[in-house]
Amino acid sequence: MGQPVASRGRAATPTLGKAMLNKYARAFFTRVLTPFASFLIRRGVSPDTVTLLGTAGVVAGALVFFPMGEFFWGTIVITLFVFSDLVDGNMARQLGRSSRWGAFLDSTLDRVADGAIFGGFILWYAGGGDDLVLCAVSIFCLASGQVVSYTKARGESIGLPVAVNGLVERAERLVISLVAAGLAGLHTFGVPGIQYLLPVALWIVAVGSLVTLIQRVVTVRREAAEADAATPQETQGSEAAK
Q1: Cα distances (Å, whole numbers) of residue 112 to 36, 50, 71, 94, 222
Q2: Is 48 a catalytic residue?
């Protein structure tokens, strides 16, 4: 699910592991997992391989358990594979690696994991969950989340900073959804009423994602206008210098 940015050579963006593990827990588990990371390195396993396996585990947890309504166990499986965020980052630091390829792979597989998680919700509500409204809300969460990520990537690709912290970014989307899903899954163990947490969470994510998308579009529009206005002045200055 992606190496920490210091080891992967890209700007700081929250990964699923970073979102679900606070800095104190990360420090603890980093110490615990360092011997395991060293073992994998000695066995010739690359950080990219761990990233791929971690993503595969998240995808399996989401698309096997969620469509059956097994939200508790699906969330447990996903959370276990979140630790790949710490293992592959630890490996990358030990190896002293920082690469554009690693950053690209990390970001690409983040999108795959996001799609699987919300795709699992979609399949449940389109099938056994039998709720077309929540199915549509889940589809919106999936689509808006991808577009929110795209707006920042596209804005940065044309040279804009996209300097805005959105209301509900990737970390918030995943933490809200997965915590709610895991707790909602306790309904199968006899906890009454808790199953309604997931629908509430999906509505929160949907509205928050829409607000975040608007924030980013407005920011890019403003930054683009400022950059376009500055370009002629810079060109005139260059001509005058000649």
Answers
A1: 26, 15, 19, 27, 31
A2: no
